[in-house]
Amino acid sequence: MEWLSGRVILVWGFKRALLVILAGAIGVLALPPFGFFAAMFVSFALLVWLLDGVAAGPDSGLLGRLWPAFFTGWLFGFGYFVAGLWWLGHALLIDADEFAWALPLAILGLPAFLAVFYGVATVLARILWSDGMGRIAALAFSFGIVEWLRSFLFTGFPWNAIGYGAMPIPLMMQSAHVIGMLGVTVLAVFVFAVPALLGTRQGRLPGVGLAVLIVTAHFGYGYYALSQPEAPLADAKTAPVVRIVQPSIDQETKMDTAADRAAIFDRHLALSVQPPANGGKRPDIIVWPETAVPFILTDNRDALARIADQLDDDQVLITGAVRVEDMGPGVEPRYYNSIYVIDGRGQIIGASDKTHLVPFGEYVPFEHILSYLGIENVVELPGGFSAAAKRQLLTLPDGLKFYPLICYEIIFPNEMTPEIRQADAILNVTNDGWFGDTPGPYQHFLQARVRAVEQGLPLIRSANTGISAFVDPHGRVLSGIDYNQQGFIDTTLGGATLSRIDDKARKIYFWLIVGVVGIMALISRMGFISRVN
């Protein structure tokens, strides 16, 4: 290992740049659909050694001394995000004639931008750099800070945060309930980077010892949490049966005519009224995916009447739909990506609008400027979607409350409002058909499962083309439908975990962990400076 670390530290020029990019790309193997978490050990060990070897000219100013560290982190992030997000380009090929020109921006431009965060992380780590375990703590501290920043800056995009690589299975997800995904990220970076100590002489025993302690606690708590029962609903005997419908509508299916839209609507209805498998109980709640209704539902009374005809009086349909709000004469209406609750009489009895929209997918930032450059939404709506000011809980006639998250809203751990404490389940409707059978839908599904673990709530997830599933509060998939499969699943809704930790506590624990590794790095740095002096 010492021989290997020495070779990596001394590599230079073009070979060094390629090695840094490769180190970042290797880490993606820890994410779905691969789930090979050991790849992160290779990725971060290489990053530590590469940062050991950064150097600037003797006459360089402050920026000149920091630039090699930033560029190393940027290249690492570029490799990581290109390998992990290349599938975003698939959405642009749905309407290739109009959007193919933007492929380089999606496949290379977004990763180049996100890589700036990792460049900042390596600069911050390098400022605190020292020999031995201190530099591992510095890296964990800096990645924890930048992954937190990535969760909200510039509307936020915490997709594929490093911590997800440490949570491929439910046993390894449970720590997120206590310290959150961001807390897991800090500790994961520390553990993933520890093999770098095997290639140097200092800090091996304390570094490896602390890593073993962290891993033991991670797996130990996972085993303990999975052995705990769930809290039953108010009346377990009458726990509702929920049906998830996955219509598997090809994203390239045209909806140019009323007949096309009617056929899509009919498919949803047909799957909704199928008899339960194996003579099971009829579903009480039926869930359709995001924007499942291919027209403005409130303008189509016949559609509401057909829903009423197919539902029993005590059944409820929950569906994604586009909601329109009339703004008055001469003013363009506003469109919302919404969820409707419809009762057995065809009445809309509840609704919730999406609050966190997808940039360039559902709205164009700085639209007045970018529209002159020909940049438009991928979604074809005049002016795009509008964002709701507040998320609304969905309350069903039987008193159950669902916390609604539309599409990628579920990837934001810091956006859970206090109302989620009142919810009986998380409801996630999405349409991952934009991304084809690529790693994207599988990555999205993992992040949804981790949200269920963090909140200690069951997850009901309906996706147009998959992955649809019922997930228990510990992230275990109770039943599901794989990508690109048409069908439905019925499952009795379970309860939350017995002891739910709230988001405020998770944030406190995250900052305590960041503080501890930061102090470790600072103490090591100060000790190193004193020895040099």
From TrEMBL:
Transmembrane annotation, as ranges: 9-30, 66-87, 99-124, 136-157, 177-198, 205-224, 508-528
CDD domains: ALP_N-acyl_transferase
Residue ranges of domain CN hydrolase in the record: 245-500
Annotated InterPro entries: Apolipo_AcylTrfase, C-N_Hydrolase, C-N_Hydrolase_sf, LNT_N
Listed Gene3D superfamilies: Carbon-nitrogen hydrolase
Location(s), subcellular: Cell membrane
Gene Ontology molecular function: N-acyltransferase activity
Pathway annotation from the record: Protein modification; lipoprotein biosynthesis (N-acyl transfer)
E.C. numbers: 2.3.1.269
PROSITE patterns (UniProt xref): CN_HYDROLASE
One annotated Gene Ontology cellular component of this protein: plasma membrane
Family of this protein: Belongs to the CN hydrolase family. Apolipoprotein N-acyltransferase subfamily.
UniProt name for this protein: Apolipoprotein N-acyltransferase
Species for this entry: Rhizobium tropici
